[in-house]
Amino acid sequence: QKEVEQNSGPLSVPEGAIASLNCTYSDRGSQSFFWYRQYSGKSPELIMFIYSNGDKEDGRFTAQLNKASQYVSLLIRDSQPSDSATYLCAVNPAAGNKLTFGGGTRVLVKP
Amino acid sequence: DTGVSQNPRHKITKRGQNVTFRCDPISEHNRLYWYRQTLGQGPEFLTYFQNEAQLEKSRLLSDRFSAERPKGSFSTLEIQRTEQGDSAMYLCASSADGGGQAFFGQGTRLTVV
Q1: With contact defined as beta carbons under 8 Å apart, do B6 and B22 qualify?
Q2: pLDDT in tens, A27-82
Q3: DSSP characters for chain B?
Q4: Would A43 disulfide with which of A19, A36, A109, B104, CB 3.0-4.6 Å?
Q5: Subunit contact B43:A88, Cβ cutoff 8 A
């Protein structure tokens, strides 16, 4: 079992719709969770972080964390073609100080 | 520009040669990370520094890889006797104490021919 798992996609979403991305992790003691956006050929860009159970909203993005079920999700509302990218889930495990990444979910927003 | 800076952006080298990459973190960040990313995969952790101390190194990391962070400022990653399998994007990130929000540089794309 991988430490952080994501569906590789592609997730195809019509423009203006909600994109829903999921991520599960194996280390139950993980404390902090991050979503990065990565455009093709570019480096990852931090877009959201969440530390507590529940929802956290920032503009069109909402991160959701459920530690009991060991999953974190990202919602993108009013999806735009510029949101087309790979979204990486990253987890800071309990016993370390590094981020462990999932393989990423590719999102395609179609006009 | 006060972000993480990596040099060079691209490096093409012949198999068997040594290469060195440099990373300048955000100035107030004392944590520095190196990752490697290949096409279609997420970043893979290589090593981590807190100030000048190298606190963790991936078990998957070959002895051909070495990293330093003298004086807790910039860091270098050296790959000795490069192999074609070393071709990847090498990413550097930095973060401040607490929070764990890590910010990445532009990366160095290595091609071994």
Answers
A1: yes
A2: 998 989 999 999 999 999 999 999 999 999 999 999 999 999 999 999 999 999 99
A3: --S-EEE-SEEEE-TT--EEEEEE--TT--EEEEEEE-TTS--EEEEEEETTEEEEE-TT--TTEEEE-GGGS-EEEEE-S--GGG-EEEEEEEE-TTT---EE---EEEEE-
A4: B104
A5: yes
